[in-house]
Amino acid sequence: MAKRRLYPTSCILVVLAFCVVGATAVHNDKCYRQSRDALSHKEASAACVFMGGQLVDIKQSHEQQMLTDIIRNTNDVSHWTFIKSETPTLLHIDGSPMSLQSSWMAEDMYGPFDICVLLDRDQSYKGDFHAYHCAGNPCWSGGTCVNGPTGYTCTCPSGTSGQNCETVHNDKCYRQSRDALSHKEALAACVFMGGQLVDIKQSHEQQMLTDIIRNTNDVSHWTFIKSETPTLLHIDGSPMSLQSSWMAEDMYGPFDICVLLDRDQSYKGDFHACTEQHNYVCESPVTPCHPDVCQHGGVCKSCFSESPMCDCPPGYTGVFCETDINECASNPCQNGGTCLDRVNSYVCACRIGFDGDLCENDIDYCDPNPCPTSWTCVDQVVGFHCEVPHGAKAASTFCMASPCGPGWTCEDTGLRTGYNCIPVS
Ligand SMILES: [Ca+2]
């Protein structure tokens, strides 16, 4: 039985999602905020809790109508609601259930097949089921999400890969943000997705990130380091008594400075006020999956407490490596050959008269000349013709002597011409 996610009953702030810019409504003693950004359902749930509310849980039609009116008057796009369905039952081809653990029971997990309820713009904002993935664009680093029957695929910018356009480097997983936030918000955002703001320790790590950033959005990114409050002096040289807030884990003072991989400094670290809004990179360790859902020997990895990433062996693709790539799709066999799909390869079955890996060779049956001495051989598409030499004794029944040999059919072609040899198919 599905268990719905519970939130503290003291919450009266109910929000649609994250990062508010106005668009706040009060209706029947509840306060609603519309998000500025598109997130996955999981991220949206976390974002609402982060700001002291919860993802909107629509219980009555007038509430839905009120929200629909607001959305239509603002950005007019689909919005997540609270409800998340159970993992749908997937069946093997023989009808037996596929043993994928439903992750709905766990408070903070979403399974690869979970679907969520969207106030769907394309359905006049009636609730509709959507894979939680693409509707919130789970693709980081500027990747593009494409929904498929068993999940989604991210088309990732160069330098990034993985299910969500993460970059895996030395057993760490990196994600580039979609948005610019203050250093404090960036720190919190990384923790929310199960990681931390990137803490660059080595130059090869910095170089790797610089390369990725240059290939994607090419803007400055926050790193983990936050400096102490700098000493400020009055005009007479005496120190200004500002309390340093660096010691407290979750506080930022008004004069704190943070370290930015600064685009204008060729991505060398540079000091900036922590309150500036910049993009950021989150990191997390790469961990094995539980359960391992990858098929056909795919290696299952997970990062940011997210759904599994399968590294598929050659010849397989799909979120779970469930699809045997059809290597025949490009019709590689020539001259009417039949393509037989294999794992990471194919075999061409050639029409008679052709050979070669791609059936690209038109067989020359006259090389070497199989005809009697002094006869002329004429290569045919299938088989060959032996032509009687000029001045030879007239005859029309050359095949009586079985000149083609076993495995061949002989065909007399008439007086003074000769015979055809055709391979038995
Ligand atoms: Ca194949």
TrEMBL record:
<keyword id="KW-0732">Signal</keyword>
<dbReference type="InterPro" id="IPR018097">
    <property type="entry name" value="EGF_Ca-bd_CS"/>
</dbReference>
<dbReference type="GO" id="GO:0005509">
    <property type="term" value="F:calcium ion binding"/>
</dbReference>
<feature type="domain" description="EGF-like">
    <location>
        <begin position="324"/>
        <end position="360"/>
    </location>
</feature>
<dbReference type="Pfam" id="PF00008">
    <property type="entry name" value="EGF"/>
</dbReference>
<dbReference type="InterPro" id="IPR016187">
    <property type="entry name" value="CTDL_fold"/>
</dbReference>
<dbReference type="InterPro" id="IPR016186">
    <property type="entry name" value="C-type_lectin-like/link_sf"/>
</dbReference>
<dbReference type="GO" id="GO:0005112">
    <property type="term" value="F:Notch binding"/>
</dbReference>
<feature type="signal peptide">
    <location>
        <begin position="1"/>
        <end position="25"/>
    </location>
</feature>
<dbReference type="GO" id="GO:0007219">
    <property type="term" value="P:Notch signaling pathway"/>
</dbReference>
<dbReference type="InterPro" id="IPR000742">
    <property type="entry name" value="EGF"/>
</dbReference>
<keyword id="KW-0677">Repeat</keyword>
<feature type="domain" description="C-type lectin">
    <location>
        <begin position="169"/>
        <end position="283"/>
    </location>
</feature>
<feature type="disulfide bond">
    <location>
        <begin position="156"/>
        <end position="165"/>
    </location>
</feature>
<keyword id="KW-0325">Glycoprotein</keyword>
<dbReference type="InterPro" id="IPR000152">
    <property type="entry name" value="EGF-type_Asp/Asn_hydroxyl_site"/>
</dbReference>
<feature type="domain" description="EGF-like">
    <location>
        <begin position="285"/>
        <end position="322"/>
    </location>
</feature>
<protein>
    <submittedName>
        <fullName>Fibropellin-1-like</fullName>
    </submittedName>
</protein>
<feature type="domain" description="EGF-like">
    <location>
        <begin position="130"/>
        <end position="166"/>
    </location>
</feature>
<dbReference type="Pfam" id="PF00059">
    <property type="entry name" value="Lectin_C"/>
</dbReference>
<feature type="disulfide bond">
    <location>
        <begin position="350"/>
        <end position="359"/>
    </location>
</feature>
<dbReference type="InterPro" id="IPR001881">
    <property type="entry name" value="EGF-like_Ca-bd_dom"/>
</dbReference>
<keyword id="KW-0245">EGF-like domain</keyword>
<feature type="disulfide bond">
    <location>
        <begin position="312"/>
        <end position="321"/>
    </location>
</feature>
<feature type="domain" description="C-type lectin">
    <location>
        <begin position="27"/>
        <end position="134"/>
    </location>
</feature>
<dbReference type="InterPro" id="IPR001304">
    <property type="entry name" value="C-type_lectin-like"/>
</dbReference>
<keyword id="KW-1015">Disulfide bond</keyword>
